[in-house]
Amino acid sequence: MELTTVALLLLIPLLIWRIYLRLKRMLARQESLMGKHWMSAVAFSVFLVWMAATMADNVLAVSCLGAGALAGAWLGFFGFKTTHFEVFGTRVYFTPNLRIGLAVFMLFAGRMLYRGVELYMSNHLQAHQLVSQKDFVQSPGTTIILGLLAGYCAAYSSLMIRWRQAHKPAPEPEL
C-alpha cells in the first residue's frame, strides 16, 4: 500500500469529524432572514430542474433524482414541523431539527467523499479504467442523494417563507 493511500485513509475520519462539527454549528439557532430563505428555495429548485434537464437522456438518473427530491421534500416537511421558533420583537429565530438536517447533509458529504476516494483509487490502479464524467455524475447513488439534499433544502426554505409570511413579527414600539 502506498504512503499516499495510507495518509488518505488516516485523514478521512478527521475530515468526516470536521464536516460533522461544522454542520452541527450550521444547524444551531439562527436568525430567520427572508432573503436567505428565498435564495435557498429558488437556487435549489433551479438546481433540480437544471440537473433533470442535463440528464434528460438517462431515465434512471432522472428517476433517481426525482425520487431523491420527493424524499427530501418529505424530510424537509417533517424537519420543519419539529423546528423551534422564537420571536423577539422584530427578530425571528429558529432552530432546525438537528437529526434530520445532519442526516441529509452527512449523506451528501459521505457520498461526495466516496466518489472522491473512488476517483483517487481508479487513478492509482494498474489497469487504468476510464470513467466518463457522465457516468460519474449520473450514477443512481449520486443523483438520489443530490435530489435528497436539494429537495430537503428547497422544501424547508419554502416552508420557512410560508411560516414567516403567516407570522409577521410585531413592529418596534415608538418612543
From TrEMBL:
InterPro entries reported in the protein's UniProt record: DUF1453 (IPR058247)
Signal peptide: none
Alphabetically ordered keywords of this record: Membrane, Transmembrane, Transmembrane helix
Keyword hit for Ligase: no
Annotated TM spans: 6-23, 35-53, 59-80, 92-114, 141-159
Top-level division of the source organism's lineage: Bacteria
Pfam families, alphabetized: DUF1453 (PF07301)
Descriptive protein name: DUF1453 domain-containing protein
Organism: Pseudoduganella namucuonensis
